[in-house]
Amino acid sequence: MKKLQVKFGTGNPKGSSRSLIRPLQRDRGSGGNELNSRRRVDAVMAELEKMIGLENVKGLIKELRAFIEIQRRRQREGLVSSTNTLHMIFKGNPGTGKSTVARFMGKLFKELGVLTQGHLIEVERADLVGEYIGHTAHKAREQLKKAIGGILFIDEAYSLARGGEKDFGREAIDVLVKGMEDYRDNMVLILAGYKDEMDYFLETNPGLRSRFPIQLEFPDYTVPELMAIAQLMLAEKQYMLTPAAAGELERILRREVLFGHPYNGNARMVRNIIERAMRRQALRLVNKKTLTRQELMSIEKEDLLRPAPPVG
Question: Which residues, 6+ apart, have CB-to-CB distance to 242 below 8 Å?
Answer without folding.
Answer: 298, 299, 300, 301
